[in-house]
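thought: fold this chain, then report.
action: predict
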Amino acid sequence: MIMMEISTRDFGPIRVDADALYAFPEGIYGFEEEKQFALVLRTYGDASLLYLQSTVHPAPCFLVFDPGDLCPGYQPTLSAEDLRQCGAEAADELVFLTIATVRDKIEDMTINLKSPIVMNPKKKTARQVILQDPEYLIRYRPFDPEGKEGASC
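observation:
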């Protein structure tokens, strides 16, 4: 097991397994200069959260979720070009994650279903894509008891 130490804003210095590293040739929207991220699992008591942490700079660090856990039935359709750029023939070869924006209250947290992070675990590459499906929202509120902001999943 090859380990790499990275400096983080939120967790201080941490060691990550090289298997957790993903190349982002195009970066992430708004962070195009960040070309490598690590998937970091942090456990807090009984809960575990997954983060996408830059390996070059202490920030950015994104809280990410499997969209299917928060939006049952989430089945994004990728274009042939997106599949090609992800190095896959079919979407079932890929892993989808959504970036969360955390507010003061959990009910106000949003996840971006419209622009998921698409990861190819075999090639250790990833990219953010913009889905053409109008049903998927940029600010989906999975914990809002008053209902979802916009269309439901």
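thought: worth noting. The beta strands are 3-8, 12-17, 21-23, 36-44, 47-54, 61-65, 95-101, 110-111, 117-120, 125-128.
final: tokens above.
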